[in-house]
């Protein structure tokens, strides 16, 4: 007979005795450490390219340290908020290193918002300093006036007069960026916080229903997601990364810090334009970039001569479920596209359609299907599953049972600023609720079927708007498509499609409907197609809430 096991020991053991945590063996994780390492190890390598400007990692570190010193002199410290109204410029890169080094919180503003919403957000996060590009001076002048009149708040303004801007350099504040940097000696070291749980950034959701929510992220999550980006994408050292994704969006999916981690080169671009993107790729031998599906579609539809002479370029696509036709189109152009999925609340991408080697043996159509899935959790994210949103029970990986995608782990936000109710709801059951409806396939890859609010229920049948959009995108004349529910007296709802055509393309609604009938069950085929401009955010995400309003408005008139 085996002896009884010893009782479970709860008192400290030998591995807890005289082995204290100390400054030599434990440092809080923060992406601020990446800039210090790159300045030390890759000091003379090119870090930033912006028009005629070039900065090495040593220079970027010094400029960031000067900015940190200047902000500290203006009273910025731990827990203070610094707002940035900047396009993808060197100053935006530097803000991502300097502000967190002070223990302050970076609030990157969406450059397409209007003054009332910008003023609301800056008041909500109690911004103390604004760094703003002169291109946005008229808008920010209105914003600051509203901030003072409505909320009684006055803040310090630092004006950036970018050498690549084509607009007049109108000044709003008492400080000009370059002069401010010149007037302050750099800090000896850019250091992270004492506690890695400290906030690093606050980013606002779109606010399509009610006020926007301020997503608060922490140093630990930013560090781990920056590392995950490099591991997930198998990025080599010294990538040449083109900024087509706005850095204001989820802090550029943490890539300001990923590029620093790898000693790479930031190629800055003020505007998203197909010809400018392709020219920058060619001129600077760009090998990596990130973009929403609509930006990839712009590249597919660009003139062939603009795409000539490109090397091997790897792209991440996210921001919306990519149409199968887009993935297939980029593959035909020779671009290596990886599909990632995430939300602001998980620092941008937190899942990836990892390409298995055997997929290369499949035909292009099957590769497109496999690559079009939202995939599996990032390497440093602890959990991703599909749950029944009512019972919070995990659903089977059978490819048919639909539920809500949920995440848990270190790459999840702290919560929503000043909104404890929304924070508790988002974390109910110990998981972050995304609101995205999906199935888990047998290989544990997730495939989104729709946002919960975008499912169309017609005659009791659920219709995925994404599935209908995929069918439309397979017609060569379609450049952009969005499908929403239109109220219907008989069926409750029917699919209504909004379509933008590729340049020079001609097609009518009847032709597109006939095309969809070859790919979809009859009840899923759009009953109506409207050829109208589709509203999009600055990151290329289609704003379906506006289209739903159009659909409801027209239905009421009819």
UniProtKB/TrEMBL annotation:
InterPro entries: AMP-bd_C, AMP-bd_C_sf, AMP-binding_CS, AMP-dep_synth/lig_dom, ANL_N_sf. The keyword Nucleotide-binding does not apply. GO terms for molecular function: ligase activity. Residues 467-541 form the AMP-binding enzyme C-terminal domain. Pfam families: AMP-binding, AMP-binding_C. The keyword Ligase applies. GO terms for biological process: fatty acid metabolic process. Residues 36-417 form the AMP-dependent synthetase/ligase domain. Keywords: Fatty acid metabolism, Ligase, Lipid metabolism. Belongs to the ATP-dependent AMP-binding enzyme family. PANTHER family: ACYL-ACTIVATING ENZYME, BUTANOATE--COA LIGASE AAE1-RELATED. This is Fatty-acyl-CoA synthase. It comes from Sphaerotilus mobilis.
């Amino acid at each position: 007979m085996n002896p009884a096991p010893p009782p479970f020991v709860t008192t400290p053991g030998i591995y807890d005795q005289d082995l204290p945590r100390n400054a030599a063996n434990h440092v809080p994780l923060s992406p601020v450490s990446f800039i210090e390492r790159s300045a030390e190890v890759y000091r003379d390598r090119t870090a930033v390219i912006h028009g005629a400007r070039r900065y090495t990692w040593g220079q970027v570190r010094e400029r960031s340290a000067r900015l940190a010193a200047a902000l500290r002199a203006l009273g910025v410290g731990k827990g203070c908020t610094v707002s940035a109204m900047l396009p993808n410029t060197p100053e935006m890169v530097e803000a991502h290193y300097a502000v967190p080094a002070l223990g302050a919180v970076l609030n990157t503003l969406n450059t397409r918002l209007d003054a009332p919403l910008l003023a609301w957000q800056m008041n909500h996060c109690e911004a103390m300093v604004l760094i703003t590009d002169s291109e946005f001076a008229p808008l920010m002048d209105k914003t600051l006036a509203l901030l003072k009149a409505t909320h009684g708040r006055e803040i310090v303004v630092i004006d950036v007069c970018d050498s690549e801007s084509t607009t007049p350099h109108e000044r709003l504040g008492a400080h000009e960026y370059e002069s401010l940097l010149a007037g302050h000696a750099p800090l000896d070291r850019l250091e992270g916080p004492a506690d890695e749980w400290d906030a690093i950034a606050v980013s606002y959701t779109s606010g399509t229903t009610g006020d926007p929510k301020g997503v608060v992220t922490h140093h630990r999550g930013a560090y781990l997601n920056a590392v995950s980006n490099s591991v997930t994408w198998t990025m080599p050292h010294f990538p040449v990364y083109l900024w087509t994704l706005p850095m204001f969006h989820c802090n550029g999916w943490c890539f300001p810090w990923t590029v620093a981690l790898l000693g790479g080169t930031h190629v800055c671009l003020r505007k998203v334009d197909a010809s400018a993107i392709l020219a920058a790729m060619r001129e600077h031998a760009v090998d990596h970039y990130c973009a929403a599906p609509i930006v990839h579609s712009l590249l597919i539809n660009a003139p062939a001569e603009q795409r000539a002479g490109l090397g091997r370029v790897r792209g991440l696509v996210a921001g919306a479920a990519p149409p199968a036709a887009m993935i297939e189109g980029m593959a035909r152009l020779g671009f290596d596209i990886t599909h990632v999925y995430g939300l602001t609340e998980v620092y941008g991408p937190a899942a990836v359609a990892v390409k298995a080697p055997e997929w290369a043996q499949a035909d292009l159509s099957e590769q497109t299907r496999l690559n079009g899935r939202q995939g599996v959790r990032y390497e440093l994210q602890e959990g991703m599953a599909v749950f029944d949103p009512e019972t919070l029970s995990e659903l089977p990986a059978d490819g048919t049972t639909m539920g809500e995608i949920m995440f848990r782990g270190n790459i999840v936000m702290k919560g929503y600023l000043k909104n404890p109710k929304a924070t508790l709801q988002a974390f109910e059951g110990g998981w972050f609720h995304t609101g995205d409806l999906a199935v888990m396939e047998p290989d544990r890859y997730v495939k989104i079927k729709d946002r919960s609010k975008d499912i169309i229920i017609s005659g009791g049948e659920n219709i995925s708007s994404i599935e209908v959009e995929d069918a439309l995108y397979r017609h060569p004349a379609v450049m952009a498509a969005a499908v929403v529910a239109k109220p219907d007296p008989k069926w409750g709802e029917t699919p209504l499609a909004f379509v933008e055509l590729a340049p020079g393309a001609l097609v009518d609604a009847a032709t597109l409907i006939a095309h969809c009938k070859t790919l979809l069950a009859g009840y899923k085929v759009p009953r109506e197609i409207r050829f109208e401009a589709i509203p999009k955010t600055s990151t290329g995400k289609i704003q379906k809430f506006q289209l739903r309003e159009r659909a409801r408005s027209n239905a009421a008139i009819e």
